[in-house]
Amino acid sequence: MYTLNFEKKVALINGASRGIGEAIAKGIADCGAQLIITGRKQETIQNVADEIIKNGGKAHAAVCHAGKISDIKNLISLIRDKFGQLDILINNAATNPYYGPAAENPIEAFNKTVEVNLQGPYFFMSEAIPLMTESGGGSIVNVA
After folding, report:
1. How much is the pTM?
2. What is the helix (H) or strand (E) element at residue 91, kind and residue range?
3. InterPro entries from the entry (predicted)?
């Protein structure tokens, strides 16, 4: 069986406070990476980080709204200052504020969906790629 080794790698996973993002974070932590995990609520994302640390992993929890470029810029700046590199970006954050017929979808819900699900990954990539390049390259995974 092949085992991934992410020792000395820094991984950023957004939308990691629950579900698929949380599972991805725990899996990458098990492979030895230093994690920066994000969510919208400090308590929720900190609980995930604490669990990873309790199980021997390395995790830093950060509040970051995936649809707000200012939050993303601040996060990448923090990663640059604290870790000096970024090797892995996993864009997992998403929202679906409306369930029902598309013709009845309120414009506010549509705009929020576009902000988080489309613009968010683009903003994360545009801010992360320069740091990844400075770090010698990296990998980006966009979860759909």
Report:
1. 0.94
2. strand 88-91
3. NAD(P)-bd_dom_sf (IPR036291), SDR_fam (IPR002347)
- Could you give all domains of the chain from N- to C-terminal order, each with its CATH number? 10-142 (3.40.50.720)
**What 3-state class would DSSP assign to 36?**
strand
| pLDDT-derived band at 144, boundaries 50, 70, 90 | confident
**Beta bridge partners of residue 36, listed in sequence order:** 12, 60
**CA separation for the pair 98, 116 (Å, rounded):** 13
Half-sphere exposure of 75 (CA within 13 A, CB side): 31
How high is the pLDDT of residue 1? 57
| Eight-class DSSP state of 7 | T
What Cα–Cα distance (Å) separates residue 87 from each residue in 9, 68, 131? 6, 22, 9
142 three-class SS? strand
Considering only CA atoms, give the Rg of the chain. Answer: 15
Residue 3 confidence (pLDDT): 81
pLDDT in tens, 75-91: 999 999 999 999 999 99
Q: Where are the alpha helices (DSSP H) in the chain?
A: 19-30, 42-54, 69-83, 107-114, 120-134
